Fold:
Amino acid sequence: MTKLTKVLYAEDEADIREIATLALETIGELETATCESGVSVIDLAMEFQPQLILLDVMMPDMDGPTTLQALRAHPQLSHIPVIFLTAKILPDEITRFKALGAIDVISKPFDPMTLAEKIEQIWAQL
Amino acid sequence: MSPVNGASVLIITSLLLATLTQLLDWKTNNWLESILVLSIIVLFLYYQKQTRANQAYLHTLLDNVSDAILTIDINGSILSVNNTAEEMLGYHPNELIGKNVKMLMPSPYSEMHDSYLSNFKQTGHTHIIGKTREVEALRKNGEVFEVELWVHQIIYKHEIQFMGILRDISERKHVDKIKTEFISTVSHELRTPLTSIRGSLGILKSGVLDKTPDKANRMIELAHNNTERLINLVNDILDVEKIQAGKIELKLETLNLIDIVKHSIAENEAYANTCQVTLELKTDLDNFQIYADSLRLQQVMANLISNAAKFSPENAHVLIDIKKIDQFIRVSVTDQGAGIPEEYRNKIFQKFSQIDSSDTRQKGGTGLGLNITKAIIEHHGGHIDYTSETGKGSTFFFELIEYHNDKQSTQAVEPETTDTISTITTKVKNHGHILVLEDEKDIANLLSLLLEQRGFNVTTCNNSEDAKQLLANNHYDAITVDIRLPGQDGLSFIKEIRNQEKHCALPIIIISAEAEFNKDNTPSALRIVDWIDKPIDTQRLNKALKNALKKATNHQTTILHIEDNQDLIEMMSGLLNNKATLTHASNMQSAKEIIAAEKFDLVILDIGLPDGNGLELIPLINQKKPLVPIIIFSAQSVEKDILTQVDAALVKSTVSNNELVATIKKLTAPLGTIND
Structure:
């Protein structure tokens, strides 16, 4: 597996987006692109070409699961693994996210000091 | 007209006639006498009116309580209902009076009700009296709703009646559901801002950004610690909700418990340091395999260690001890705190419990930790408890069973099983093949594990239909059945399979949270080997299975035959030759002595005995534990109410030998080997 260097993160909460960027870029040394809605993910992913996509679940316009389906249906993006980053962590919900095709679910609140490390671990297991 | 009213009309009429005679005979009698009689009449009429007024008052009261009240006789026939019952159930009183109360219960309660009553008739005991239970009731329109039921026994005119009080709790249940959803939403809404707060503080505290002054650092540290506390609280509340909703899920895998404990100690060292307490591990073991959820066990350890640290004085040691006891492992965490007064024993594992609220403020914590810890351990099939000495400290310990991951002896999955049924089959040693019918995945996995440890092959399934299909296509030596299942419930499943020739011999063990509750009210004809409550007592389960399987292979059926006719005694001996050990009693006296002294798998009872009526022996036989099935084999047929107290009633000369043997076989098969 090649080393993980580029991730895309979609999150509607600006504060969380900022912290995650810091956690991924400054602490994790990952090249990170962010957007605030599922709708923007496809265009941004085409342009940025990430190795991995992180999605929030509850987003206006287009939520995480719908975005995942749109990615899966896209001929050039369908291969990119997706991780959900969410506060919806009831067992039923987690099972549902995985059934949709997410490779893992990271629960919020996440620890910014170890977020990148956690993602790299999941990446290494692919 | 009631007998009371009839009697009063008779009295009034005779008094009036007497007065009339006296008035007509005015000249010869004293008029004072007539006035006296008239006064008696007036007084009597006044008393009558008062009684009626009192009755009406009582009726008004009963009709205006918000609970439904109904009375039934000992056979279950409805005697009276109040207005609320009418409104709650949707029936006019005329549609209820005289009918069996079963009509107001959905399945399985309606089927169980007859056995409650017959059990009461036999033993005079019923554990539902005086207790409040949550059950389901059935409205006329077919709607099932939840009620709280309270049953009281009353004696009216020397007859036993039962008064049932029903409270409609469907609204309360609905509110509970909304509350659960509310908590789930709120916890999500809380987590979102907490993500930002914890994130910012975490980064600031780490120092990866610009250097902050020491005083500011201290403030950041305080804010960060309290954010962690808030997150733990939100997590705990979510956990409690999961436990209450039965939604706690475990990711079970083979683990080394020693590693988990060591890891947990390392993780909690920092917290112990803040309490100025040292953690100390004591064990001779370096590997002990368990089948458990790693994160959940770490949560248990974190809870026990942090409690011990929190409640110990400064410079104290918290001792973590791991010991093997038989096939169990015991992990104990001992503190040097103030100890727990004995009166708090019942409260310690309850939600929101700390010894006093001043402690909560001083020591922190939500009072949810031990409640969650206990639920996690019990979901692992384990056991948790504590010992404590005031002034010296407390030891909290839990026990989990050892897991043998015996891969070499694992054989192929049984080929007969159809693909449509989701089953897990593992073979280890060949002590027997057990079918586990259990809808909760964790418990099914645990049961498989526990049984495989003891050398049984296990197949699991999660509903009655799959179980029937598996039973039809495979051989099993025993089955464990949960009562609450999706679709057909466990008890009606057992009733159904017991009527099938192939399964009348199958040993059945109930494993259910409602085992103890259903035990006394289930007919002995279902021949349940044991009733095991959840959380599962593993030793009892093992014993029950061993007994069941041993009996099925080695046990010779013993039958007590109570009969005075010598020809019939010989006939029975001939019929059951080599298939069962028969003991004879030819009169009441000797029967009573033998019943008291010996154990039997079955009693065959004649009614007409030289020194009395054989039916009088039934209560005596029904006192035996475990219950002994009874066949009445007599020249006369028996009354309906007797039938509820026995398992079969056969009339001599109308029943063939084959039928007789088949009935005996059916009633004794799980415990014996009467073969054709």
In short: The CA atoms of residues 65 and 105 of chain A lie 12 Å apart. Chain A has one domain: 6-124. Chain A touches chain B at residues 13, 15-16, 19-20, 22-23, 26-27, 58, 87-92, 108-113 (CB under 8 Å).
